[in-house]
Amino acid sequence: MEIDFSKKLPISFYQQDTISVANQLIGKIIVKIDEKNSILAGKIVEVEAYTQYKDEASHSFVGMTKRNKAMFEIGGILYVYFIYGMYFCANIVTNKKDIGDAVLIRAVEPIFNLEQISINRYGRKDITNKQKLNLTNGPGKFCAGFGINTTHNFVDLTSNSIFILDGNEEKIEIGVSERIGINKSKELQRRFYLKGSQFLSR
DNA sequence: ATTCCGATTGCCT
DNA sequence: GGCAATCGGAATG
After folding, report:
1. Three-state secondary structure along chain A?
2. Nearest nucleotide by C1' position to the A86 CA atom
3. Which residues of chain A have pLDDT under 70?
4. What number does CATH give the domain A19-194?
5. pTM, whole model, 2 decimals?
6. A176 is near strand B: CB distance < 7 Å
7. Between A139-146 and A114-122, two packed helices, what is the crossing angle to 10 degrees?
8. Which of residues 25-84 of A touch strand C (CB under 7 A)?
9. A86 CA to C5 C1' distance (Å)
10. How far is residue A162's CA from residue A178's CA, in Å, rounded to a whole number?
């Protein structure tokens, strides 16, 4: 896959209102280039917005802590945290400095280097069709497949290690729903997904 | 120091 | 549908 760096999203993209960024992220291409220069890429098909204010489910609701510090930076970096003793979740930090907002990447359609993503997920490149659909269809699965962990916390999304490209200009339909796996602020409609995608978390 | 529990996943019935 | 795995974060004492 050739990467068109001219399509890399500018820093200003991330500094917009968080709900707006969440919507616009659907259909975009997230790229990771690892230490061995191998390229992984996927289309973002599902995200969730988390904001400091009026959102009790957000890590930042209680203010800045050691864990959520990245959320308070200016939009355009990654916030990665460890959860349930064994998984990682990756977020796109949004909005202005000192506002603790971010967008969780919940699911991605793998589009390049499925072999490496399979190895990262299952330890082998030959997998069943069902496993192919399950490669990156959840926040923990996406991080595992793309090799994202807390060493990527604070990574600059305008760098060449992890970044996001504008997708095709095709018209897409975006669905909206309540968020998944939370117990507070359940009523907020802040999950956004690509309608019809086979790679959603549910 | 202790306690509770989580922005998940995979396996089980 | 239920639930165990597994451990660090945050609140509390």
Report:
1. CCCCHHHECCHHHHCCCHHHHHHHHCCCEEEEECCCCCEEEEEEEEEEEECCCCCCCCHHHHCCCCCCHHHHCCCCEEEEEEECCCEEEEEEECCCCCCCCEEEEEEEEEEECHHHHHHHHHCCCCCCHHHHHCCCCCHHHHHHHHCCCHHHCCCECCCCCEEEECCCCCCCCEEEECCCCCCCCCCCCCEEEECCCCCCCC
2. C6
3. 169
4. 3.10.300.10
5. 0.97
6. no
7. 110
8. 59, 62, 65-68, 81-82, 84
9. 9
10. 28
State how far the Cα of A104 lies from the Cα of A93, in Å rounded to an integer. Answer: 9
pLDDT digits (tens, 9 = 90+) for A70-86: 999 999 999 999 999 99
Q: What is the pLDDT at residue A57? A: 98
Residue A144: closest CA among A176, A110, A111: A110
Per-residue pLDDT at A1: 78
Q: What is the pLDDT of residues A106-146, one digit of tens each?
A: 999 999 999 999 999 999 999 999 999 999 999 999 999 99
Q: Where are the domains of chain A?
A: 19-194
Q: Which residue has the tokens 């949004």?
A: A94
